[in-house]
Each structure stands twice: as C-alpha cells, then as structure tokens.
Amino acid sequence: MDSQSLPIRLEFDSVSVYFGATRALNDLTMSIRAGEIVGLLGHNGAGKSTVLNVATGAVTMTSGSMRLDGIEVPQPLTPKVASDLGLTVIHQEPALAQNLSVLDNLLLMKDIPGGLRRRREIARATLAKVDASESIALEQPVSSLSLGMRQMVDLARGSLSGDARVLFLDEPTAALGDRETRALHTIVREFAARGAAIVYVSHRLPDILDVCTRIVVLRNGALVEDQPTAHLTPEVLARALAPELDELDIAPAAPGELVLEVEHHETLRFCKGEVVGLFGMAAGPQFDLLDRLFGLSGGMEATLGGAAYRPRRPASAIMRGVHLVPGDREQDGLVSGMSAFDNVALPWIDRRGTKRDSLFDAYHLSRRAFNVIGPGAEAPIAEFSGGNRQKHLLARWIFPVSPRVLLLSQPTQGVDISAKRDIRKVVRQLAESGCAVLVASAETDEIATLCDRAYVFSGDRTSELLKSADFDALLLSTLLALTDISRQSLNPEFS
User: Fold this and answer.
1) φ and ψ at residue 471, rounded to 5 degrees
2) Distance between CA atoms of residues 379 and 383, nearest Å
3) Distance of alpha carbon 395 from alpha carbon 365, whole angstroms
4) Number of alpha carbons in the 13 Å side-chain half-sphere of residue 61
5) Tell me, what's the pLDDT at 220?
6) Residue 343: its pLDDT value, please?
7) For the chain, is the Cβ count within 10 Å smaller at the N or the C terminus?
8) Are 452 and 275 in contact (CB under 8 A)?
9) Cα–Cα distance between 175 and 173 in angstroms, integer?
10) 3-state SS of the chain: helix, strand, coil percent to 5?
C-alpha cells in the first residue's frame, strides 16, 4: 500500500518551543501516518528531543497545535494524558523499577480486577506482543535482565498505555548488539503493521536506513529534509545532518615520553600526545581497567610518571592527575537537579585555591571549545540535549583542571555526527597538549575515528594494533580471533 493512502495519525502544525531566548523548535509542520516508521534525525540541539517531549507532554509548546487522528490535542498536555491517548515513548535507558519483577513493572499503577491470575495472563499477553513471552520470566527481577530485554519490557509496558497509536523510540539501539537490534526492528515493523505510527530517533544511520520508511531531518529546530528512505543515501544524509561538517585531517601522533604503564596480563604503555583505544566486547575487561585506574575497583600494578601508582579511591587518582569520564552520563556522571555550570564545576568547587570566577571562565571556555548549543550556564542540565549533556560531562574533567591521563568510556556513544566531530577535536587538542588519552569502547568506529592505536582485549588475551587504512575492520577481526583462541584454550573440543 502506498504510504500516502494511509490515514494521518499525528500532525504538528507550526509548532514552536522557546526556552527563554533559546528556540528549540521553529515553526515545525510535519505529519506522520499510521503504519509509517519515520526516522527523526538531526545534530545535538536540532530539536529531536523537544519533538518527543512536546508529543508526550513533558514540554509545553509555545505556539502552534498538535492533532491526533484529526482531533486537536488540548494544551498543556500532561504525560499521563499523552499516555492515555496512546502517545508512548521508549527511552534509551528504560525507566523501570530495578528492584521489582517484570510482572510488577508491566502492571505498575494499573488497576486490574481479577487477582494475581488475571494480572499474570495480561502480563504474558503483553510480553507476547513484543515476542518476549518465552524469553522473559514474569518473576524475574528487572535488574537481572540485559539492556535489550529491559527495552522489550519497556516496549511491552508502553503497549498497555492507550492503544500505542504513536510509538516514539529514543535511541533504542545505542547499547544493543546486532542480534538484539534485528529483534527490535522486527518488533517495530510488527507494531507498524498493526497501524501504529513509529517515530525512531537514532544517531546510527545504518539502523535508520534498515528500518525506517521515511526520514525527517531537523536543523536548529526547523525541518530541512523529509523524504522516503529509498531516496536518501548515507552521503546525502550526512550533508543534511551537518552541512558544515569537514573531515578532521589528523596526522598520526608522534608519541612523547612514557606516562603510564599498566600490568594487565602483559605490559600496556601509554605516552603523552597519543590517543589509545581499549577495544573489546560490551562489558568487557577494557571498562574494568578504566575503573581500576580511577580507583573504583580492585587492585592493580601500574606506574605513573615513573612512580608506583595504586589508587585506592577516585580522590587519589584525581590528585595524581588521572580523570575518568564514565560511560553512563546519566547514572554515573551528571547530576540532573544541578545547573550546567555546577555539573562542570562539581569536583573542583571546594578545592583549595580554586575560585568560582576561574571556574566560570573555564566553563565558558569549554562551551566554545565543544560548540555547546543550548541554554545558559545556570539552566538545569536536563534542559540540554543528550549530546550537549555529554559535552558538559567531558568538560568537567578537561577544562577546570587539565588531566595528566584522561580515561574515556565510550565518549561518543549516543551522540550525533556533528557532536562526535566536536568531541574528537577537543580530545585531539588535549592529547597534543601532552595528555595521554585512553578510550575504552565496544564500538569499532569509535576507536577507529578517535585513536592512534589500540589494544584489543578478550579475556586474559591482548593484542596491539597500529592505525591503518582498514583499522575498523582489523579491530573486529582481531577481537574475533582472540575470542576464538580463548574458546579453544578453555575447551579443546573447539580446536
């Protein structure tokens, strides 16, 4: 069926949103039809999150109107009313109660007559809608589920709210593997086949091109591209997303003096002036290594500047000039109730000899360096887009006090192409100033675009790779080879 023959499900008519002097949406007019899967793209600060927040009642539009199945939605809209209308959002990090069971999460705040038996029947039927009734047990604590499974539970729970007439997916595959992503896309297509309109927000162009039937691109709060997916190539999309984007011409690093040596089954060496990748599987040993270097867990053998380095706690690491940017910016990094400035100044504000004026200077310097877009320094950090929040977290550990060693855990995960460029530029400048930078990741493209060389981890095995034209492919093939070797050593049947 031609998509143009499908009924219009959701319409935005001249919608504008202002946060003080900042215009988040600029006279946005667009429509989404029942059964469509629309990819919503744009750089950080382009307005994607604002679209989702307006549609689900988290933000009130300044002007304009929104219609659902031809009926104007009363404003101001609340999240409860939006949910009852079938306007459902599934976030990158599912908002589930970790200490409760799957059953309790699915039916939380739901008044269902008939007792436990009836509740279990409804819960099983709900999981079946997302093809998860056999893989996920109702009694299982949510905390024991993988991220992919938690997203399935969140998706199922969303289907219980109204008719799920419009389903908004916010970076749903940011932390998923290929298999989980394929499973999610199958479910998304099934929802669309049942008549739901899908809005899919992602920075992963391959995922957008795989599942979306139409693509909408926002820039500075305005619609700049709206075409069927089949008419758009990755190159066209890249230009639409960041027309000013230019490739950074980075010459291979000329490493300076040795800064850090770490004993991790073998000796790993890190020098001034270089960015070194630590690559492995998701939740692999490369992330544990960063934690130990920052004094968060376990003991270790290392030397820093030629002297023994055995941090017992983060304060000890910071005193030695070792700073960590954690991978989960919302859980382990930023404080949602604080201002943007206070989030950056947090570790330094009570430090002896540190003046608040100098911290403000550092904050504004970091905004210019990272090309931060959004409200002012005193605005809550929650008002910034995800990519701009990530820039604030990086700024905290770079600008008020420059590190000797910077530890980065997946620093560009879930940010758009333009923000990746901004982050890469600052990281490179920091290395050139004499810092040793370590980047832990499970994404080959993140390592390939940021790093001069890399250590590849699998269990207790490590292999070093130098930068090359096919760096990306070599990272993955090396990891697979190491994994296979590990399997054979553990089980001779594989040899």
Assistant:
1) -55, -45
2) 7
3) 9
4) 25
5) 84
6) 94
7) N
8) yes
9) 6
10) 40, 25, 40
Instruction: Quickly list DSSP for 385-404.
Output: -HHHHHHHHHHHTTSSS--S
Q: What is the dihedral of CA 77, 81, 83, 85, to 10 degrees?
A: -100
* Dist. CA 172–CA 183, nearest whole Å: 12
Q: Is the peptide bond before 76 cis (omega within 30 degrees of 0)?
A: yes
Looking at residue 493, the DSSP 8-state letter turns out to be G
**Nearest by Cα to 446 from 469, 412, 474, 471:** 412
Flag residues of the chain having pLDDT under 70. Answer: 1-4, 44, 92-95, 109-111, 130-131, 133, 147, 158-163, 174-177, 233-253, 351-354, 483-495
pLDDT of residue 493: 45
Number of neighbouring beta carbons within 10 Å of residue 232: 21
Task: Calculate ∠ Cα 99-105-106, nearest 5°.
Answer: 160
Structural domains for the chain: 3-241 (3.40.50.300), 258-494 (3.40.50.300)
For the whole model, what pTM was predicted?
A: 0.60
Going through 101-152 in order, the beta strands assigned E by DSSP cover none
State the pLDDT at residue 76.
93
Give the angle subtended at the CA of 16 by the CAs of 162 and 23, to the nearest 5°: 125
Instruction: Please say whether the beta carbons of 404 and 436 come within 8 A.
Output: yes
pLDDT for the residue 494: 38
